[in-house]
Amino acid sequence: MREAHAGRADLMRSLRPRRWDAISAAVVALLAVPEVLARHGGVTGAAFDVAFAVPLLWRSRWPVAVFAVTAGIAFVQWLVDVRVLGDVALLVALYTVASREDRRTALTAAAVLEVGVLLALARWFHDAHIRSFVGLTGLVAAAGILGQNVRNRRRLLESLHERAARLELERDQQGKLAAAAERARIARELHDVVAHNLTVMIALADGAGYAVRDAPDEAQSALETVSHTGREALAEMRRLLGVLREQDEQADAVPQPGVAEIDALVEQVRAAGLPVSYRVSPETRDLSPGVQLTVFRIIQEALTNTLKHAGLTATAEVELIATENDVRISVLDTGTPPASTTAPNGDGGSGLRGMRERAAVYGGVVDAGPRPQGGWRVEAQLPRR
Question: Would you put residue 317 in left (φ > 0), alpha (ψ -120 to 50) or beta?
Fold first, then answer.
């Protein structure tokens, strides 16, 4: 529908100049009527009027050519010594050149027409040279200035239309970039949620499998924790997928995990069999929601890697300190270090890369690597402001 409307609008704009060409030609042609009625032998003058009018039908399409033709007709008229009202076609042709061509072409056409004014003064205005010169020159200047003003206005409108189209394109591109960034953010969220919760569930399920015969009560407790963890993971995945489907305020208003939820995260990891000590400074409660979410996800990912790679006898320490200038995160474990010097997920893995991407959003950095005394460390620093 919009394309059809735009097509009709373009058609109307293309027909509008032709309509005004026809009107101007008809007006000049009608000047032949008083030529015929005014005096005997006015047929020659009427023929010149019609000759002046006919080229105006194409003035919008070929303004310079039409001006040249009307100037030639005017010169022939001067040679045969016939004065007609159709000379006004020269002013119309000059206006068209000034409104559609560059300034140099318009000045050249005005100079040609001014020469015609001098020739007309020499032949037909013997008694009032100064007054006639001022009047005719004023008409020439008015036609040229009016045409230039119309040209400037047309160029301004074209530039405004072009700017509006460019802004619309940039707006669409910004929307696509924002959508891509949101998809990347949700992909990181899904990775962290799935990786952490599945790791906890696997650890609990393994523990329940070992204890099902000797300690059935502990096995049952572990299976209940597995069920609870699975439901939490499913609920959080549904929330994230709901953000993909919805773009309203309700989707954005869903609360995100922050510093307050780290306690529950640590307890969940402890239930999976990894002893964790956690220390946090009170100033972290004043962090912005976005920074709190980043802190939570970095700690979650680091503990998930510890569960997966550190071994059965490993322990972990989590420290979260906030100062006036920055926020520092430290997750240390005592597990067996990986054989290589890269992180368990490596620079090419989504885990460490996701932590670094999250920190980079707030101008922070993440450093990970083996500890000299054994185990692994993940350290991050985020600017407070």
Answer: beta
Quick one: fold of 258-385? Heat Shock Protein 90 (3.30.565)
Please name the residues in contact with 304: beta carbons below 8 A apart, sequence gap of 6 or more: 192, 195, 196, 199, 351
- Which parts of 82-128 fold into alpha helices (H)? 88-100, 103-124
- pLDDT tens readout for residues 261-317: 889 888 888 887 888 999 998 887 778 888 888 888 899 888 888 888 877 788 899
In this structure, what are the phi and psi dihedrals at residue 79, rounded to the nearest 5 degrees? Answer: -65, -40
Residues 6+ apart with CB under 8 A from 131: none
Give helix then strand counts, H and E, for the chain. 12, 5
Alpha-carbon distance values, 156 to 15, 144, 159, 162, 163 (Å): 21, 18, 5, 10, 10
Please list the ranges in the chain whose pLDDT falls under 50.
Answer: 1-12, 14-15, 40-41, 247-253, 340-348
Beta-carbon count within 10 A of 211 CB: 16
Please calculate the CA angle 255-191-256 and round it to the nearest 5 degrees: 10
Domain residue extents for the chain: 2-124, 258-385
Mean pLDDT for all residues in the chain: 76
pTM, two decimals, is 0.45
In the block, tokens 């597990």 appear at 335
